[in-house]
């Protein structure tokens, strides 16, 4: 009987160890799968964002080419506005209209008496007027102008720069750090705002303003049109704080971000989730308008 008891205990121990190993393996597999899904989603979003940027660059290049062609056509229209007149051999040149400035090989040739027309004979004496000709006199030796005397001055020493004041070590609390990040965001300093919110999330991860700080971090990405990172940050808000009021705003911005990267299906999915989970919220009102526009 004692032997049977020991055998049963050994069997139960093996089963317990097996169950524990199975649970650990399942947990590891689940974590690995979640990480792979998140990594694939991030790569996909970055790919869509790169596609959008390339499309914007193509549009800008096409617009620049159109402007250049329009300028060339405008210049051609101006040139065609006047009559181009090319004098025939033996004809007198006409003064009106546009005259070609290109001379043929026989139009002008060098002679001893200066440049004369090719069909003229021996040049006669030039008629002279009775006016004075000061340019006909050969000037004498050039007048030497003495160089000005340079008075050397001793260099004036530059004013000594004041030593920079030592940086003050800021000892801001949670509310002050959050307010500083929000102020930088409202001022358009999105990089600085994101740095402040990252500092807040690192130092005060258990504070009541953590969902708000995480949401506004996503807004910094959205304002910079980095929609892939915005989606990932807003999804962190909804996954960590699904019942918080900021999750409604985050769902709205997730849908709008998907729309910006050209993924209307996901945009409709998250906007519908917002309307279903937070039907009376202000973001849900905006979501209904977006769904109407997207046909969802």
UniProtKB/TrEMBL annotation:
<keyword id="KW-0732">Signal</keyword>
<protein>
    <submittedName>
        <fullName>Tol-pal system protein YbgF</fullName>
    </submittedName>
</protein>
<dbReference type="GO" id="GO:0051301">
    <property type="term" value="P:cell division"/>
</dbReference>
<feature type="region of interest" description="Disordered">
    <location>
        <begin position="88"/>
        <end position="157"/>
    </location>
</feature>
<dbReference type="InterPro" id="IPR034706">
    <property type="entry name" value="CpoB"/>
</dbReference>
<dbReference type="Pfam" id="PF13174">
    <property type="entry name" value="TPR_6"/>
</dbReference>
<dbReference type="InterPro" id="IPR019734">
    <property type="entry name" value="TPR_rpt"/>
</dbReference>
<keyword id="KW-0802">TPR repeat</keyword>
<dbReference type="InterPro" id="IPR011990">
    <property type="entry name" value="TPR-like_helical_dom_sf"/>
</dbReference>
<feature type="signal peptide">
    <location>
        <begin position="1"/>
        <end position="26"/>
    </location>
</feature>
<dbReference type="InterPro" id="IPR014162">
    <property type="entry name" value="CpoB_C"/>
</dbReference>
<feature type="repeat" description="TPR">
    <location>
        <begin position="211"/>
        <end position="244"/>
    </location>
</feature>
<dbReference type="Pfam" id="PF13432">
    <property type="entry name" value="TPR_16"/>
</dbReference>
């Amino acid at each position: 009987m004692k032997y049977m008891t020991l055998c049963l205990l050994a069997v139960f121990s093996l089963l317990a160890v097996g169950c524990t190993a199975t649970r650990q393996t399942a947990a590891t597999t689940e974590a690995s799968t979640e990480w792979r899904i998140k990594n694939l989603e991030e790569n996909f979003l970055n790919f869509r964002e790169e596609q959008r940027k390339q499309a914007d660059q193509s549009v800008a290049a096409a617009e620049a080419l159109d402007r250049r062609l329009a300028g060339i056509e405008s210049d051609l229209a101006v040139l065609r506005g006047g009559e181009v007149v090319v004098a025939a051999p033996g004809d007198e040149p006409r003064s009106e209209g546009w005259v070609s400035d290109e001379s043929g090989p026989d139009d002008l040739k060098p002679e001893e008496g200066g440049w004369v027309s090719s069909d003229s004979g021996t040049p006669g004496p030039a008629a002279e007027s009775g006016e004075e000709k000061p340019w006909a006199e050969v000037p004498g030796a050039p007048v030497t102008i003495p160089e000005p005397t340079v008075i050397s001055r001793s260099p004036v020493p530059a004013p000594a720069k004041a030593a920079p004041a030592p940086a003050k070590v800021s000892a801001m609390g949670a509310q002050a750090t959050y307010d500083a990040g929000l102020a930088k965001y409202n001022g358009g300093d999105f990089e600085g705002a994101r740095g402040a919110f990252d500092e807040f999330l690192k130092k005060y991860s258990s504070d009541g303003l953590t969902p708000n700080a995480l949401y506004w971090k996503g807004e910094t990405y959205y304002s910079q049109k980095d929609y892939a990172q915005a989606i990932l940050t807003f999804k962190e808000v909804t996954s960590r704080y699904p019942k918080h009021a900021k999750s409604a705003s985050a769902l709205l911005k997730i849908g709008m971000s998907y729309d910006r990267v050209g993924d209307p299906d996901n945009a409709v999915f998250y906007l519908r989730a917002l309307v279903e989970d937070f039907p009376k919220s202000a973001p849900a009102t905006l979501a209904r308008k977006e769904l109407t526009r997207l046909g969802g």
